[in-house]
Amino acid sequence: MFRTYDVPDQRNLLDQTRQGLIGEPLDRPEGALKVCGVAPYAAERRPDDCAEGVLVTATIAQGKVAVLHRDEVLAMPGVLGVFADKRMLRRPAQGTAGQAPVQDIREVDYYGQPIALVVAETFEQATHAAKALRVEYQPAGEVPFDPEAAEATPAKKPVVLGDLDEAMAAAAHSVDLTYTTEGHASAAMEPHASVAEWQDDRLTLWGSFQMISHNVKELADSLRIAPGHVRIRSDYVGGGFGSKLGISHDAVAAAIAARELGRPVRVVLSRQQVFDTIMRRSETRQRLRLAADARGNLTGIGHEAWVSNLPGEQFAEPVTQATEFLYRGESRKLAVNISRISRLTAGSVRAPGEAVGMQVLEAAMDELAEKAGLDPVELRKRNLPEALPGKDRPYSSRLLAEALDQGARAFGWQERAPRPRMRREGEWWLGMGVASAARVNMLMPAAARVRLEADGSLRVQSDQTDIGTGSYAILGQIAGEMLGVPIERVTVELGDSSLPSGAGSGGSFGASSTGSAVFRACEAIRDKLAHRLRVATESLDLRDGIASGSGREVPVTELLAGEPLDEIGRIKPGKSQRDYAQASYGAFFCEVAVNAYTAETRLRRMLGAFGFGRVLNAKTARSQCLGGMVWGIGSALTEELAFDPRDGQLTGHDLARYHVPCHADIPALEVILLEERDAAASPIQAKGVGELAICGAAGAIANAIYNACGVRMREFPMTPDRLL
Ligand code: MOS
């Protein structure tokens, strides 16, 4: 049913069409609705007779709930029910949720884990009752809170090639360094929320999700019902950053309570509950070994990481992901080790793997460049492999050297002082830094429907979500471009699981995957139009509702003759994905000022140059790059999940204490979008951009700090207390 993508499509059809929509910096069609507060988010869908649910979270780290004093709160005004069903306790993973309900005896695995849902007529009544609910625990305490105190085991089979120890011993230049990064929160603007409504045995759930077709299965699994009986709507999503890849407790709890009560139930998490219960990026410890010959050619790379998660969780932050393909170095040892601790679930947060792996790799590369006496740009350029190390697989397209060169020119890299502490302005040391950017590229199974209406207007439908990234805009642009329809006449409907399954928003694959499904559907419609015009598909030209070819010119509405054309396009990864090592690339350049007395670091300016295949919309792509760089800056300077060492409780669980960068932290950022086509990546020759600009950005800032004040920072975030 899904067509695999096997042979790189070199036709560049989107370069030959003439509607002029592809790549144009068009506004997001839902942008004004979101900004003006008109776009309804999940929590704003309140059906008649909707009851309000508030989650109760554990105030111990480990153990069992012995007694829930539900009778006391059931007597409170407006309270409708107290639900404590085992199915809603853990963050459900597909296929693993849905154990039999057990009354009143539950496991607690971490501080802040949801243990019950209190439902009342109003939100205030539910909040009051949830606070009043007395819980008696049977504490236990076998699992440590501190990752360093827990024993680590390999998360997967390490990559071992050649003999790294030998390469290190024989190296003309080498570094052997250990770094740490703190945990991160996704920190999406819109808190998680679910509104559940049953009609007989069918559930409709309004929620905030990234991957709806996957989320339907998770929810059905958790409730032990058929996926066909679950419909999810996420028309508008206020950011995800990984935290909405899977469903969360609110969805399962709202569905269970709504069924029991026979009326709709809404559950909205507080900001603190989002921090406490959804997920974290693991903290990491990373040992980097780089071995190079006298000319700075890498002969070996060691990248060993230590991360953590709850006992039994599958996910381990894939820290070494980019190290596998980025640079040369025949001898290698790449490993991720995991320890089991009692802190909330670790999961995919904003470019899992590369975000923290690249910032450390790129900082280590800077130290190696200094030892080898090379400009750090030059060190990177001379270490780009011909083929994927150890696999001999060619790269699809890779504009890393170009990004470094163009970025260096545009930034004024030649102004960089060759040694630290050479540029001073009042009490500030000034310095510049560079880093590479890289993020793996994925094509995922996706479907989309395109309907060319009898009146010549166009409708695009998929359950693809738009989490603020531009799906509504770019899917409309692709369809309008392919079928010669002005953008004003294109309607895009997303975020409803009853529509064909898009790839979802995750791993930066949404635009290229679901965009390719739209492209395929349009190809099928083009074939039919060409047939009706009696021209070969290759000579069909569509623009502004006019079909032309072989000297003929006919309005498309005439070819349609009162009937719409409706096609579903489908794509899934194939040989093309297996035959080529695929990633998006780029380079960061930045300038910082470090206060000589307080060690405060202020970013002065930053530039990123990025190549990620075809640019579908220059405005949304640039926004993705800006957002990525902002996350990189946060990772470098301010973002840090702090846990109480006594019980694993998250202490900074709101945006006042978890510091994402604010406007005053972000100077003018410049983005260069490189011209590129990657035929191996997808039929539309686009790759992922969503997460690219996070990956490595913090390394550039660490390198600039060194260039400014001569301090090598190996602990992130590089707060003044660490830098002093
Ligand atoms: Mo992304 S962390 O795969 O949403």
From TrEMBL:
Pfam families: Ald_Xan_dh_C, MoCoBD_1, MoCoBD_2. Residues 36-141 form the Aldehyde oxidase/xanthine dehydrogenase a/b hammerhead domain. This is Xanthine dehydrogenase family protein molybdopterin-binding subunit. Transmembrane segments: none annotated. InterPro entries: Ald_Oxase/Xan_DH_a/b (IPR000674), Ald_Oxase/Xan_DH_a/b_sf (IPR036856), Ald_Oxase/xanthine_DH-like (IPR016208), AldOxase/xan_DH_MoCoBD1 (IPR008274), AldOxase/xan_DH_MoCoBD2 (IPR046867), AldOxase/xan_DH_Mopterin-bd_sf (IPR037165). Gene3D superfamilies: Aldehyde oxidase/xanthine dehydrogenase, a/b hammerhead, Aldehyde oxidase/xanthine dehydrogenase, molybdopterin binding domain.
